[in-house]
Amino acid sequence: MARHVPREIAPGVHMLTLGRGVAASNAYLVRSGGGTWVLVDAGWRASAPAIEAAAGRLLGPDVRPTAILLTHLHPDHSGAAGALARSWEVPVYAHADEVVMAAGRYLPERSMPLDRWVVVPLMNVLPARRRAAVEAAGDITDVVRPLAASGAVPGLPDWEYVPTPGHTPGHVAYLRRGDGVLISGDAVLTVDLSSVVGAVTGRRRLAGPPWLTTWDRAAAQRSVEALAALNPRVLAPGHGRPLALGTARALQALARGAAVTAPRAAGRRAGLAPGPVLRALRRRAGSDGCC
To answer: Taking every annotated instance into account, which residue ranges of this chain make up the domain Metallo-beta-lactamase (predicted)?
Structure first.
């Protein structure tokens, strides 16, 4: 897939891949039934110009989103959220259990192996002023808001959020139940980032979140099971290519603990939904006026 070019993977849902190799993550530009749009996840901090350019290319230079939605607050998904929110003058939404991370500071009770083994030791050797600057750069407390407990999604009346804790305490996925489109964040990936081979080669495999950056692996597995129970038709992951054929069956196998190779039938061009699947989704979504 061409870098920084949004590609439609489901009606009104465009995926934008930011970064390269193991550092690449996905953001989604999603249109609502009323003609407005939101951004789901925001890549790395340096991703802001690429996201703004992609939004302008797709939607027009003067069209701003109604909100930025986050699956979780990790720097490869929330990095550009603050800069974009301030530029566009829109709020950022995350689960209430995630908002505590918005100050950009290390919290021991929410740490993951990478924090304990790498990030904290590095931060501890920084001069106090430099450490404060790093934390301040990641602070989005001025723009972040908690998602409503009802499950409603700001700016997307035909979507709902699904709590999927484990990778982080307040991780969520976003579901359009009408046609089964699921933006899974890091709760479920289509690339194996938990092995050296997978991370280096980008091996396509349905997988849970990378264990090195996961807060609670048992909770993460329960979240995989919860998503499998939704029987989604299209999986739009935080890392890797979208999956549009055999999605529910593959996710159910993953929930049972099986290793699942992401089928190449998910799309000849970079895993996009193949023509018949996308047309069927359009017909199904058309009754909601989503596109």
So the answer is: 24-239
The parent domain of residue 61 ranges over 7-104+139-286
Q: Which residue has the higher pLDDT, 266 or 225?
A: 225
As a whole number, mean pLDDT of residues 173-178 equals 97
Residue 152: inside a domain: yes
**Contact partners, residue 35, CB within 8 Å, separation at least 6:** none
Q: What is the DSSP string of 133-188?
A: HHHHHT--TTTEEEPPTT-B-TT-TT-EEEE-TTSSTT-EEEEETTTTEEEEETSS
Whether pLDDT at 281 is above 70: no
> pTM for the whole thing?
0.88
- Is residue 119 domain-resident? no
Cα of 42 vs its chain's centroid, Å: 8
Q: What is the number of other CB atoms lying within 10 angstroms of the CB of residue 21? A: 9
pLDDT (0 to 100) of residue 41: 98
Q: Is residue 291 part of a domain?
A: no
Q: What is the pLDDT of residue 1?
A: 43
Kindly state whether residue 125 falls inside one of the protein's structural domains.
no
> How many domains is the chain built from?
1
Residues 6+ apart with CB under 8 A from 136: 104
**Domain CATH number, residue 187:** 3.60.15.10
Alpha helices in 169-274 (DSSP H): 196-201, 217-228, 247-255
